[in-house]
What does this fold into?
Amino acid sequence: MSVSVIELNQLTKAYGSARGISNLSFTVEQGEIFGFIGPNGAGKSTTIRTLLGLIKPTSGSAAIFGKDTVQHGTEIRKEIGYLPSEVFYYDHMKVKDLLNYSASFYKKDCRSRIKELADSMNLDLNKRINDLSLGNKKKVGIIQGLLHEPKLIILDEPTSGLDPLMQQTFFELLEQENKKGATILFSSHILSEVQRLCDRVAIIKEGKLVKLEKMSVLKADSYKRIKLETTAPIPLHYFQLSGVHELEVKGSMIQFLYKGNLNVITAKLAAIEINNLWLEEPDLEEIFMHYYEREG
Amino acid sequence: MNIFRRELKATRKSLLIWCIGIIVMIISGMGKYEGMSVSATGQSMNELVANMPKSLQVILGIGTFDLSKASGYYGVLFLYLLMMATIHAAMLGASMISKEERDKTAEFLLVKPVSRSFVLTAKLLAALVNVMVVGLVMWISSVVIVNNYSHGEYVNGDIALMMAGMFILQLLFLMIGAMIAANSRHAKRAVSWSTAILLVTFMLALGIDLSGKLDLLAYVTPFKYFEAKNVMYGGGLSKVSVGLSVAIIGICSVLTYVGYNRRDLNM
It folds into this structure.
């Protein structure tokens, strides 16, 4: 039986205003790369900070490695590596000193690992933190989060500030860690990166879980983007059937999103004169927008 | 140990500056005594002070001191030294706790496998070392410099007693600062609040001297606990004051730990 690495049970964090999360429940299984998706302000960081014990839940609970995050926070955090969305470190420290300081909290010798990670990310360990660019600070954050080879890696908007090449290296690092057995919680509002890495995603909006789905299902099973050009204009109502969304007609150009029995829609298409036809997998962005529009 | 060491390193520079400031303060303060005792006889100084309005005496902190003696002059200076040491302690106590949130490093330090109490203890110990260094520098430089002007008068006993009182007040204000920072949701305001409390209690102490009444209020302001004029001339440290200080330090410590463990950190 697989053990849940993270288990949220009706987790709620209420702030005075609308921010926060309410009754969030989902589990992240051992060895998964789990996407945690939502726009800014949806409650991703709030959820993660609650898991890490930086803030306390208003109600509900969460467990990591089967242990309650409030009761056993110190013990749990031994095996967590965390990269915050904005990296801030002690400005006057050298990168080397900061990383050694970070390593000193874990009962492991991390020196060779620091060196290895710094080499692969091309980071100069002798610079001072306040001399680093945002991208380089992010690299320090990445190394800091991975140096003790944690069993659970929590990444909050990890790619901001990294150039595409470095992003590539970073993703390879994550895949390596994942192969070695690490579970990864990856929060993002950039969907393409999640699409590539993640096995499952949870989509949240305004603090509530909107959708929890396997990436493959989300991508394949759900929606098709259909675009066609007809010889003669078609009346708008021709495609107004269940499963069709975002119908758009511009003269002879028609496009819409479709979810449902493909035979129904192909029969419809076969009955009209078509000049051209495009059938596309919608990217996550579109699926995502769609969830938001419908739920909102 | 790692947090403790790191905090000692981080506070090294400011500690050095405070220590230099203290030494300069004592040298320049006692230097004026030398200047005065040369130009005027000590006795005429006492007469001059006696003729001053009471309010001016209070504000200058002169009161009942015998200014013809180095010890009396040091007693006046002590108020300002005490002010320095307690401001240092209050600011240190508050900033030691609040800086992780102010500098947004809380998301680094507090996600390490350490409890908040552990972090607090390490930081408070580092602050304690800082405060002790300030106290020691104060003590040693006072003894050396005052003896230089004392013309054989025995001053070391009184200085030691005053330093003991100062150390208690340093601890007291350190813990008030820490307590405020541990419970404050606004990291940036913790230091201001701590120094504000210090200044208000200081003004209150002046107010009590000015009015000559309000004796009960003397328990409210720590600056009334170990005044030089009471500690010197064989007065020693009052048991009530020591007891009260220990109680306040104890309460602040409890509130520091409880508050910091309970609240959400600001990021």
